Amino acid sequence: MKCPFCSYESTHVIETRESAEETTRRRRECLKCKKRFTTYERVELNPLIIIKKNGVRESFDRQKLRYGLLKACEKRSVPLDVIDEIVDKIESVLRKQDTAEISSKKVGLMVMNKLKSLDKVAYIRFASVYRDFQDLGSFEEEVKKLLKK
């Protein structure tokens, strides 16, 4: 493993943790500059295909999902590790499906369910983009539903 700080070719593994989401986390230390960093190893699986609303198919992209969550949680007190955990859980559920083709609607609903229990403001932000609110009435209706629960 190459050091991301000094590009030295050798590092030492300090700690290894296995995750339930088929990920191995390794804490490493560079043998030259002594800086520490974390790497994640994931088993390469068959690609997941997301079917968009307009019928277009595209490969599942963890980073795109993470980015959407980060935007929804912007300026909120949601730690990055919680966002990464949500991404891991959603990907894990998707990979356990009987099919490799999943609708974007299903993914969006999964994200909304996670955000609803995590942070109401982040939920409303995500829902406003996901559900494509066209006017203030749609926005207000979603907030009222949220307040009832």
Structure overview:
This protein has 149 residues and is an alpha+beta fold. It folds into two domains: 1-44; 47-148. Helices cover 44% and strands 21% of the residues. The chain contains five helices and six strands, in the order βββββααβααα. It has helices at 62-72, 80-95, 104-118, 120-130, 136-148; strands at 11-18, 23-30, 36-42, 49-51, 57-59, 101-103. Strands 1-2-3 form a three-stranded antiparallel sheet, with no helix packed on it. A hairpin with a 4-residue loop joins strand 1 and strand 2. Helix 1 packs across helix 4 and helix 3 (104-118) packs antiparallel against helix 4. The radius of gyration is 19 Å and the shape is globular.
How many angstroms separate the termini? Answer: 49 Å
C-alpha-based Rg, rounded: 19 Å
Query: What is the element string, with H for helices and E for strands?
Result: EEEEEHHEHHH
Q: Give the rounded overall mean pLDDT.
A: 89
Number of strands: 6
Give the overall form. globular
Overall structural class, as computed from helix and strand content, comes to: alpha+beta
Helix content: 40-55%
Q: Which residue ranges are poorly predicted, with pLDDT under 50 across at least 5 consecutive positions?
A: none
Which strand order do you get reading across the main beta sheet? 1-2-3
Count of distinct structural domains: 2
The number of helices is: 5
Give a brief description.
This protein is an alpha+beta fold and 149 residues long. 44% of the residues lie in helices and 21% in strands. It has five helices and six strands.
Please describe the structure with a list of short key phrases separated by commas or semicolons.
3-stranded mixed β-sheet; 3-stranded antiparallel β-sheet; 2 domains; single chain; alpha+beta
